[in-house]
Amino acid sequence: MSSNLARSQAIHTINQRSPMDLGKTDPLNTIWACDVFNLATMEEKLSKTAFKSMKKTFQTGEPLDPATADVVAAAMKEWAMAKGAKFFSHIFYPMTNATAEKHDGFIITSPEGNAITDFSGSLLIKGEPDGSSFPNGSLRMTNAARGYTAWDPTSPAYIMHTPNGATLMIPCVFLSWTGEALDKKIPLLRSNAAMNKAAQRVLKLMGETEVATLNSSCGAEQEYFLIDETFATARPDILLAGRTLFGAPPAKGQQFDDHYFGAIPERVQVFMQDLEDKLYRLGIPAKTHHNEVAPGQFEVAPYFESANVAADHQQLLMTVMKMTAKAHGFLCMLHEKPFAGVNGSGKHVNWSVGNSTQGNLLDPGHTPEENLHFLAFCGAVIRGVHQFGPLLRAVIASASNDHRLGANEAPPAILSVYLGDQLEKVFNDIKAGKILKTEKGGKMDLGLSQILHFERDPGDRNRTSPFAFTGNRFEFRAVGSSQSVSGPLIAMNTMLADSLDWIADKLEAELKSGKDVATATLAVLKVVMEQHGNVVFGGNGYSPEWHKAAVEERGLKNLPTSADALPELLSPEIAGLFERTGVLTPVELHSRFEVYAEQYINSIDVEAKLVVNMATTMIYPAAVTYLSELSATTGNLQDLGISLDNSVAQSVATEANAMMAAVGKLGEARAKHDFANVQEHMAFLADTVRGLMNEVRAHADTLETLVADEMWPLPKYSEMLFIK
């Protein structure tokens, strides 16, 4: 039997791999943000007047004097060119979960033909990419191409070093010629402004006289898989769909729980160190890294930053991860479920709200029952999740995340809030019209003299909750690993702004009736819990009993697929939320539904085509070749009077025929195009096409266990997942 060349060459190449030699690495204090045009660099490079103006804009969002832009542009160009940059780029964030950039040179020519450098304030402020070539949900027709990028001075510029040279990257918003947002940054900035306005109103009603600008903050835990890149070249599904569409479970998976927090493989450790050095140079505060649950799966988590900068850094982190992985001979996989049967990857978005005068408003302190600011803001979150749970589900909807949500590795598609024992008791007391002292977690005493006693948290954690309070922030655990954090942040900021406005209205009325601030606040929160307390749940989110009770008894929505969730963006409630907060116009919101629906449809269509193609041209021929070899061998042995059991051959023939029959049904389903609307098309893909894809896969994966190993064309899970 002849071996499969691509697969055998991949295995041979991997066996020769060794960790990259990074040489001596620089200490953190010398590389931190060295490639970032941040406030520290601006203070050094700008005049005092220009720096003062930029600092005010950077920290509070105050408008920037256009004359200052010329000063900043000149200093930025000088700084970038000193670092080897010959080009600059307006980097922006279209509705693709990826970044986009167009590079321009610091160059113009003189009448004498000499080349001179130029970078004016006008070039810094505005660029002009094609507005109809990016996803826009029919906001731009093909013939209406003009779009603009506009500098966002609240997110620092930086130098991106690649093997092709250094480029000055300038974070920007992206909008159409008619003024609609075509990106994820504009609504994020608007949502933060809406939240700040509503929060200021609540805090002032509660007696605060000095209230600094409020910002939401974000720290996103990024999970990912690494496989050797030579395997990817032998897997069309990984290259084109980002996941394995075929693959039988290996004998060993994650059942021993030995990979989670285990010793990091040497090649991976070197990759992580190289990655984090690159991140530090870009001012991205990578804080934690470790092995995740599944073999071949890992996590990196940055420290908290303001939401706008954190969103930009998250996009940059994913780019740098992929580039660095390639340099180390890896492929970095950000798909939510790249391997069936093992845990998928999420991006837990830790989110909070605060400012320089009141601090973190989601920090309960030692006595949460007495912390009125915290109670008001936490109550606003509870109301927001209850009112707009379908929105939170819609902003994490994707064809890839559907594979992960609801499995025993990720939160269910039902949005609920976990508060922990102490806080749940506080809010239930408020609902009952009383406030009692709550118990802290107490001291942890193991009875071992050498182990110091420490304060135990007042509540356990709940990994099955999609929206959990974790000490001084909420953790949105259902976000997918490949997704931009901007969508979830926009939704959370906007629902919080709306709920804070609602609380302010109620609080104003209570105060006018003569109540003091404490009594008025508790009266409003009592109403919150009476109307919205059904969303608070501290039990097992995976249990069938919860799924039944959540829908039938509590009135929460279960939206298991993107086909169920995305149409929620068209609901009057969500359209009204975005319109009254000024975050998205009805036209902008509808365009986003169209974009995300199209992405869902295209993703599944690409996968279905790949399933048909790979089953027909790779797996079926392998099965037929193996049958042919078996037939020839059996015939030769029979000539010698030796008979063999032919049950394996019969099984291979049965599974191969069944697979091709399923391929035929899948091909027919793909040909269907007579849908009444986009919603019907998505539902057909979710309910029918994906089922047929799974049917093809089931037979193919059985064939993998029957066909001779050396004839199987695709690298197997056991080869890809366990990094050497």
Automatic annotation (TrEMBL):
* Residues in GS catalytic domain copies: 195-619
Q: Which SUPFAM superfamilies match?
A: Glutamine synthetase/guanido kinase
Tell me a Gene Ontology molecular-function term this record carries: glutamine synthetase activity
**Which intervals of the chain form a coiled coil?**
none
Question: Which InterPro entries does the record associate with it?
Answer: Gln-synt_C (IPR040577), Gln_synt_N (IPR008147), Gln_synth/guanido_kin_cat_dom (IPR014746), Gln_synth_cat_dom (IPR008146), Gln_synth_gly_rich_site (IPR027303), GS_Type-3 (IPR052725), GSIII_N (IPR022147)
Q: Superkingdom, according to UniProt?
A: Bacteria
Q: Name one GO biological process term.
A: glutamine biosynthetic process
Domain GS beta-grasp, first and last residues per copy: 83-179
Q: Which SMART domains match?
A: Gln-synt_C
Which family does the similarity line name?
Answer: Belongs to the glutamine synthetase family.
Checking PANTHER family in the record gives: GLUTAMINE SYNTHETASE, TYPE-3 GLUTAMINE SYNTHETASE
Q: What is this protein called?
A: Glutamine synthetase catalytic region
